């Protein structure tokens, strides 16, 4: 489906509100009707004001109620409802991860040695499957050709808090994080973040990923050595391009 860049504005256990371009609003539902055991969105989505890509699942048009029309005579006759998916299987669809694994190696994800490094790094959506002794196993939505992705704790930029219990007992902590006042990011099964693929040999059975800050993600850009195809481009990705021709209108 179509992918768009959005800003998380509200997160509740059952739904989330996302601001989209051109003053549109999208929604994320907790789960399908046949999955009552799904974790609340406060345990899944990152904090409010996080910028991330979403995949459009469906769009529906609804008639504006008479009450709403009476309260706002200038309101449109119909309103559009846009349902979004934050899941890796949808957001990463079409991405060819091999294009990025062949790019120039980066020795260190963070730090001054990499501050001005033009080597390629790629951000992809991931979901934490489990928390281990030294890091987290991350699901990339099937784009890793059967390989697992692993996040070492040392590759988490900034402060974080580990919770290996896949339960609803810590909803209060999650609510505190989503109000934008907490600085620690939560690492527990089901949590979704944008991870950074660390370039490595394609023969490795486990892909190494890092968890950069929002500021770092906005500065990532692809290098000419990556040459991604159209299907691998993601909303928010900075790329280098070469102008081959121009016309009167563009």
What features would you highlight for this structure?
globular; 5 helices; 250 residues; mainly beta; five-stranded mixed β-barrel
Describe it.
The protein has 250 residues and is mainly β. Helices cover 11% and strands 34% of the residues. The protein contains 5 helices and 12 strands. The chain has helices at 66-71, 88-91, 98-101, 171-178, 214-219, and strands spanning 3-11, 15-20, 24-29, 51-63, 78-85, 122-131, 135-139, 148-156, 160-162, 185-187, 192-197, 206-211. The strands form 3 sheets. Strands 1-2-3-5-4 form a 5-stranded mixed β-barrel. Strands 6-7-8-12-11 form a 5-stranded mixed beta barrel. The longest helix is centred in the C-terminal third of the chain and has 8 residues, at 171-178. The two termini are 27 Å apart.
Topology:
Layout: E1 3-11, E2 15-20, E3 24-29, E4 51-63, H1 66-71, E5 78-85, H2 88-91, H3 98-101, E6 122-131, E7 135-139, E8 148-156, E9 160-162, H4 171-178, E10 185-187, E11 192-197, E12 206-211, H5 214-219
Parallel strand pairs: 3-5, 8-12, 9-10
Antiparallel strand pairs: 1-2, 1-4, 2-3, 4-5, 6-7, 6-11, 7-8, 11-12
